[in-house]
Amino acid sequence: MSEERSGKELKEMGFLDHLEELRWRIIKSLLSVLLFAVIAFLFSDVFIKLLVKPIKEINPAVKFQVLKVQGILVLKLWIAFALGIAFSIPVIIYQIWAFVSPGLYEHEKKWVPWLFIGVTGFFIIGAVFAYFVIIPFAVRFLTSLGIEDVEKNISINYYAKFVMQLILASGILFQMPVLSFILTKVGLISPMTLKKYWRHAVVVILVLAAFITPPDPVSMIMMGIPLFFLYEFSILISKIAYKPVEEDAESPAG
Predict the structure, then answer these.
(1) 143: closest CA among 63, 40, 23?
(2) How far apart are CA 54 and CA 139, in angstroms?
(3) E strands in 25-129
(4) How would you label 49-84 residue by residue, b for 16+ Cβ within 10 Å and e otherwise?
(5) Number of helices and strands (H, E) in the chain?
(6) How many Cα neighbours within 13 Å face the side chain of 223?
(7) How many CB atoms lie within 10 A of CB 212?
(8) In terms of C-beta distances under 8 Å and separation of at least 24 residues, what long-range contacts does 197-204 make, across chains too?
(9) Please, which residues bridge with residue 154 across strands?
(10) Residue-wise pLDDT tens digits, 141-179
């Protein structure tokens, strides 16, 4: 006898009921983004100081410029929106899980909390890696380039966007092991597939690094290097996730 769905006791939901459920999950996620964005806006001066800290440590004499009258306001709003999304990631993940959980088996629900921890943890690791490794290296290299008689005036808006883009991109790209686990669990990939197409993966990694990071080769390379190691780690994660699939396939029904 095949395993029954854990949501058996729940009433069958119609299409419109699913849409209503999805609508409320989206609304709750958006409210979370709005709430954290408001909090981030109130403390935006603190976050701006954190963003300029890497370049100030490299060159304390650097001066920033505001090129538009509304420049500082736009900067604070942009930072608030980006941080609102970043801080809401756990909430968004939970809303996704709450929406799909009625259709999951009991053994599938057991690894959902680990996915929650994994997504949050790898995002933090990626953001920290970008802030302490990629950004200082990229800023040191880019600011060392210069032309005689050309003064370096840095726009605070462009610089903050550069830093935030690297942080968010790194946090997203560091989700590779989590994505590997999910795709293996649903049967779309396997450890053998990842090993077989590793050359193709290298190309995809470089393209992703170039697409998500700012348009400079240093950021792309610095982002690409850890992604290669993450790909190897993703193969290991895929092996762990693949074992239950093998066991389920071998176990007799009933």
Answers:
(1) 63
(2) 8
(3) 64-65
(4) eebbebbeeeeeeeebeeeeeeeeeebbeebbbbbb
(5) 12, 2
(6) 34
(7) 17
(8) 198/231, 201/231, 202/228
(9) 64
(10) 777 776 766 677 788 888 888 888 888 888 888 888 888
Burial of 28 (0-12, 13-18, 19+ CB in 10 A): middle
Q: Judging by beta carbons within 10 Å of its beta carbon (0-12, 13-18, 19+), is residue 7 exposed, middle or buried?
A: middle
Amino acid at 76: K
pTM greater than 0.90: no
pLDDT of residue 182: 81
**In DSSP terms, which residues pair with 226 in a beta bridge?**
none
Three-class DSSP category at 194:
helix
Q: How far apart are CA 139 and CA 223, in angstroms?
A: 14
Which SS3 state, helix, strand or coil, does residue 228 take? Answer: helix
Structure tokens at 35: 């709430």
